Amino acid sequence: MDKIKMLINGEWVGAGEDEWLPVYNPSTGEKLAEIVNATEKQIDTAVEVAREAFESKEWKSFKPYERGQLLMELATYIRENKDKLSELECLDVGKPMTQARNDIEAAARYFEFYAGAADKLMGDSIPIEDGLLDVTVLEPMGVTAHIIPWNYPIQIMSRSVAAAIATGNAVIVKSAEDTPLTANALAKWFAQCKLPKGIFQHVTGLGSTAGSHLVSHEGVDQITFTGSVKTGITVMKAAAESVTPVTLELGGKSPNIVFQDADLEKAAEGVKNAIVQNAGQTCSAGSRLLVHSSIKETFVNQLAEKFAALKVGRGIEDPDIGPILNKRQYEKILSYLEIGKKEGKILTGGEPVKVEDTSGYYIQPTIIDGLEHNSTLAQEEIFGPVLTVFTFEDIEEAIALANQTEYGLVTGIWTSNIDTAHYTAQGVKSGQVFVNNYGAGGGVQMPFGGYKKSGIGREKGFEALKNYVQIKNIAVKYNM
Ligand code: NAD
Q: Within its chain, how far is the Cα of 329 from the centroid?
């Protein structure tokens, strides 16, 4: 049994006898490893060490392109170890191997992208008056805390860590208590690389203790959090006490809008993939289908056939749908299905699945029809393989329904009419819009984040670099 230690100040730090937490394989229910439930003192040490490392001459003398070179080395390491890392992610999260491999590739791409960006981020010169030179310079924030969820551990960690190190910050990662394995694998790389120790640290433990202490710490200069709205609000309140900026990515209830002139086969494939990826445990999952009433029956039948053909099973066997992460999440989804049965009509799925010789938690991919727009299932993030169906009569109604939740992360639009596409894209309150596709392959270059309760700020792309820099304006008066 692996006992996973934390990386603090370049040392591997464990816990007392009773302070280890179990980590399970969601596919089988077997115990995979144990992690440290970090104490407040250990978190304090990590923050102090990060501060010292950030202020050190050694770190200040690292040129931006040298930071980039290091990140590029990490990208190479990730690619060279793709098989091993994919297996770790598959075991830890339960996700099908193909999806785990995509996640490892995305992690490498984040480090590559921000490696290239490290020496290309520049300030401005601003015309004020003759005899005065006004410039802005971008400086790193300092100590950045990265709170990682369990659904895409290596991807979500990589996207913010790469941007934060590229811009010269010291980083503390707190991985999710259920899924620390790939963060630990990257920590092993960081422990032996040329970065000053303390520029990258990895801590583990419960969100309510370790996570909460980290985000409340006066010594933290910036926080990036991905997870639930409820916890995001708690994090933001804690950060407010020390006026620490936060970047929040808090999930969604994203619609796929299918117009009557869409290529229905392509749309059905896109709508299916948008909800079943990672068993629906995806912040950007397309969990609502808004379909024109004239094509509803045909389209939903097409979709239901596709859903019924999906294979549910252990991640390592690379099915279409793996297990739900843990019992708590499984029971939460089942309780939503119970509501669905009472308030709507299950078109396909709706039941748990027993996968032989495992104690994993599996659920059939499900389509639910006949719900009210203001119902629980139409409004709340289920975070499981459950699609809810609604119809619209015209474009205005489609846009209104798309906007009728408290979220605004992603919208998919399926149409062959360019005017319909643009008009709808403009009308929806959503951080990303995809026309005749959903996700564009993940795109590390595209800014990602939400309107409304889907979050604050943007990750990915050049936009994300702004989370990790202060802007300093310098006005120089010269008398000649
Ligand atoms: P969560 O938001 O509670 O946890 C996410 C991360 O935050 C974990 O690392 C956790 O340890 C940490 N955390 C928890 N409480 C904290 C606190 N007070 N201060 C600092 N960090 C804290 O999510 P969960 O309980 O694992 O899942 C609950 C629901 O959240 C899910 O059912 C799903 O709806 C949603 N979720 C969304 C995403 C997303 O990508 N947006 C990811 C995971 C979960």
A: 17
Please confirm, yes or no, whether 249 is among the known catalytic residues: yes
Is 362 a residue whose pLDDT tops 90?
A: yes
Sign for the CA dihedral angle at 464, 9, 214, 148 comes to positive
Residue 16 — very low, low, confident or very high, per pLDDT cuts 50/70/90?
confident
* Whether residue 148 has its Cβ less than 6 Å from ligand 1: yes
The response to whether residue 211 sits with its C-beta less than 6 Å from ligand 1 reads yes
34, 89, 177, 249: the active-site residue: 249
Regarding the beta carbon of 324 and ligand 1, being less than 6 Å apart is answered no
Amino acid at 258: V
Check whether 480 has a pLDDT greater than 80: no
For residue 90, is pLDDT > 80? yes
d(CA 101, ligand 1 centre) in Å: 23
As a dihedral over the C-alpha atoms of residue 89, residue 93, residue 95, residue 97, rounded to 10 degrees, the angle is 20
SS3 sequence of 64-123: HHHHHHHHHHHHHHHHHCHHHHHHHHHHHHCCCHHHHHHHHHHHHHHHHHHHHHCCCCCC
Q: Which residues pair with 139 in a beta bridge?
A: 470
Query: Does the Cβ of 254 fall within 6 Å of ligand 1?
Result: no
pLDDT higher than 70, residue 356: yes
Please, what is the average pLDDT of the chain?
97
Q: Model confidence at 1, in pLDDT bands (50, 70, 90)?
A: low
Provide DSSP, 177-235: TT--HHHHHHHHHHHHSSSPTTSEEEE-S-IIIIIHHHHH-TT--EEEEES-HHHHHHH
Q: What mean pLDDT is predicted for residues 78-102?
A: 98
Q: Could you confirm whether 283 is annotated as catalytic? A: yes
Kindly report, residue by residue over 178-195, the tens digit of the pLDDT: 999 999 999 999 999 999
- Whether 389 shows a pLDDT value over 90: the answer reads yes
Ligand 1 near 377 CB (within 6 A): no
- The catalytic residue among 90, 283, 381, 459 is 283
Contact 131, 478 (CB under 8 A): yes
Find out whether the beta carbon of 150 lies less than 6 Å from any atom of ligand 1.
yes
Structure tokens at 408: 């605004």
**Against a cut of 0.85, is the pTM above it?**
yes
Hey, is 463 helix, strand or coil?
Answer: helix
Ligand 1 center from residue 232 Cα (angstroms): 8
The 10 Å Cβ neighbour count of residue 84 is 12
**Residue 207 in contact with ligand 1 by CB distance below 6 A:** yes
CA–centroid distance, 127 to ligand 1, in Å, is 46
Centre of ligand 1 from the C-alpha of residue 230, in Å: 8
Q: Ligand 1: which residue has its CA nearest to atom 22?
A: 207
